[in-house]
Hints:
By secondary structure, this protein is of the alpha+beta class. It has helices spanning 4-10, 23-32, 36-46, 88-100, 110-115, 117-127, and strands at 56-61, 64-70, 75-80, 104-109.
Amino acid sequence: MVCNYWESKLVAKRGHLKYLDELRELSRKGRRKMTKTENIFWYEVLRGRKTGYKFLRQKPIHRFILDFYCRELLMAIEIDGDYHHYRRNIDKERDKFLRSLNIVTLRIDSKDVIDSLDKVKREVKRVY
Length: 128
């Protein structure tokens, strides 16, 4: 459960999670220019409630932009490219913060999206 301090800072009046205003335009740009693997993942796995749940692309939460987010499941899905190998500590802190909001993060290597999409689909279904 999120402590009262975080609740007051992160939840808007209608129950939506707050985010920095600067992220609005960045997330819109991110939706228009998704990476190749994000595009494949979106169209082959998540778009149109293929999982049975509604996922959003490039969802801003607090000071982060999540690749994909499902409010019903409190689940974030991050497609990690090569550059994430250099950001592991940052990603760990981000995942820890999201856990404090009861949001589970599923990290998927971009190579797996290209090489074994069926395996990735099974993993996503296993998590929810």
